[in-house]
């Protein structure tokens, strides 16, 4: 590691010092709307092409003149009681609906004196004959059929499916906020690292991004910067290893929080990482961060006056670097301090043939999905067993260090 004027550092491992290079990240290009969102003056052709069902209607209004005696015929005293619409299929629409058991409708007039009028709308038509009801059902069936055909034409038939044994992951995410940091005017650099085995992403896919610089505001005891920065990415997992003991790795989201002041001095405020959720749906993740620390007053003075601080050359060192091939990754000698946290909101979608309703396919394809659903459970069980082994090993070491007469007093008395 080095000071603010350089961007080099060394991560520590069990085999000694290791040098890695910082991944090249390009800023996210801002999107520009290609068309207008709202068409204020639509043409006739635009209306015909963009409405779901374009059916000619005939409209009739039932109105009442509620003016005072001797002042009838003024438009300001006219009120619409009911609207009737009839289309070419013979469907009648009544608005508002028939009163029924809801009670009468109310109209309050304003003028010399305020009046309250109540009225009801009742269906006094004779009951429909069986032939008319059957014709009505055919009309509804035809109407819904045309609506379904229209929706199918919008979706199309070219729906892309995955290959057997594959899982596609779509993530629509948002960098919500960052809080608890020392300096103001924060921005977040983030990227997603895919495991080297069986994971891939499209060539055009950008797995990194940088938010805008955001000033903080006081919220409770913390200073919070709200970014609301959206991002999206897609990745694919191809399951090839069918062995029972093989557990798939999952993508990791890394983030680096930096600050930029008025004099264009930047400082690293913290590093953090989190594994992406293994289940589809909406997830809100809070990532705690830390930053390297140098126990020297000179380093803190340099950070305050001229900016810059100790930095990680390889951001994946926050988690387990993908290039690491050993059994244990040692961070011994790396001094750090806890800083703030970053909040992410992720909407995850998963696509796989294993989601099909065919039970035979589910039984035959003992694939990634079943294993991924139990990944978190197996991981927690593994942690519990590992903690139990460590505790048992410490008990055995403590037992061996005790005098023999205390360990087995019965044997001592017999001898």
From TrEMBL:
It is found in: Cytoplasm, Cytoskeleton, Cilium basal body. PANTHER family: B9 DOMAIN-CONTAINING, TECTONIC-LIKE COMPLEX MEMBER MKS1. It comes from the Eukaryota. PROSITE patterns: C2_B9. Residues 1-20 are annotated as: Disordered. It comes from Odocoileus virginianus. Keywords: Cell projection, Cilium biogenesis/degradation, Cytoplasm, Cytoskeleton. This is Tectonic-like complex member MKS1 isoform X6. InterPro entries: C2_B9-type_dom (IPR010796). The gene is MKS1.
